[in-house]
Amino acid sequence: MSTPKEEEFYVRLKEELTNTSLWPTEYLYKFIIPSDAEKMAQIENIFDNRDAQINVKESSKGKFSSISIKLKLKNPDEVIHFYKEVGKIEGVISL
């Protein structure tokens, strides 16, 4: 369940995406996660079957991983859907 602050963020994000992008469009997600194969697999499963381009870079000390995911989406609601799904994974930072 989302907090009121999170819901407010998503309302603003949807408005901004609606006003600044032509849909459908390619969208780029960026996440930081603790280097953990299970968390990485959870994120990959969320974007599975979506023809997503996923790039992973480990931090210099190997404690964290940066994940970039690019895929074509139909509308701002799809963008928000994926942010909410990834947000369910503990320790993930959305950029």
Task: Give a description of the structure.
The protein is an alpha+beta fold and 95 residues long. The chain has 3 helices and 4 strands, in the order αβαββαβ. The chain has a 4-stranded antiparallel beta sheet, with helices on one face. The chain is globular, with a radius of gyration of 14 Å. The model has no long low-confidence stretch (mean pLDDT 94).
CATH class division: Alpha Beta
- End-to-end CA span: 20 Å
Instruction: Return the average pLDDT rounded to an integer.
Output: 94
What's the name of the CATH homologous superfamily? Answer: ACT domain
Fill in the CATH topology. Answer: Alpha-Beta Plaits
Roughly how much helix do the residues carry, as a percent range? 40-55%
Shape: globular
Tell me the strand order in the biggest sheet. 2-3-1-4
What structural class results from the helix and strand content? alpha+beta
Relative strand content: 25-35%
Number of separate helices: 3
Order of helix and strand elements from N to C terminus: HEHEEHE
Which segments are poorly predicted (pLDDT under 50) over 5 or more consecutive residues?
Answer: none
Radius of gyration, rounded?
14 Å
Q: Write down how many β-strands occur, each being a DSSP E stretch of 2 or more residues.
A: 4
Instruction: Write the CATH architecture name.
Output: 2-Layer Sandwich
Largest sheet: 4 strands, antiparallel
Quickly count the domains. 1
Protein name: DUF493 domain-containing protein
